[in-house]
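Quick one:
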Amino acid sequence: MNPDWTRDYSSLETRHLVAMTEPELASVDPLATNLIVAKDIPSLADLDVAHYQAILNSWTDDFRNRCLPYWEQFFHETPEDFENDIRYFRLGMVCQYLDLEVGISYHPEQRDATSILYTDPSDLFLNGVIDTKFGTCGNMAALHVAIGWRMGWPVSLACVNSHFVCRYDDGKVAYNVESTDTGRGGWSCRTDGQYRADIDIPEQAIRSGSDLRALSARELLGAFVGLRARHTQDVGKHNRDASQMLQSESDWLLSRYLFPNQRITYKNQLAISAMRGETLFKQTEIGHPVSFAAFLQQMYSRPRPVYDSQPVDRDHSDLLFSTISKESKW
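Output:
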């Protein structure tokens, strides 16, 4: 892979990215994808993608030409300290570079927070971490991906529940770079098993394709659109304005279209779409969320096999859809 670091993305919009094929999207700089999505947020409409490209290009040049050749001699002295794998070592050196040379760290006001409302979109997108040197898992992992892309490495985001990591996967080995674990000059690269044990990620999340795998370029775009939806939703929550929260629905739906198996996106989209249903139907009408709640209660209150080992009973599910069809006759 020979990434084009200097490509002009000034004419591209999110709709153009959505229309691209998978190979076309894979050739787009992840930094550009991230910021093109961000530019649809009114407060970020004037972002200059080329400006941030130039900054990240200069960091990557410095890392590749000045730091990495010097640091690699330490790997060759004691490779056993680094999994005997130069790939593992190089991924770690990106962490060290961003930490010690660039000075990037996790947002201090958010590190110990149990819940966060992302009312500032720059806390989620790459402009924020590049401008302020403070980031979150939303933009710090994406920063590692964008540098890895410039290095020609097979990296992408991976989901760990609602968290993001930078995942290296060349088909032979896979490493999860914990980009938010900074401040000590080292790095954290946890295994899938460690994440599953520590965060209690269920087998369903792995089997469905939601968590702990490198995202395709199209899914990566979906993840970034999900960040935009999260910002819009959180602004509505902060302002206690349901109409503002509902504005996030189109992005949640687009994110699910691009990355349909992402579990967190699914949950958020269902919640917002239920709110939408309240505005479209009277509570006594089929289509209101109450009618779906009654349908689900009826379906899942009956004795039946465990869901993940048996499909939903079509006789039960068809009941709701056939009722809707009858109500819809001209």
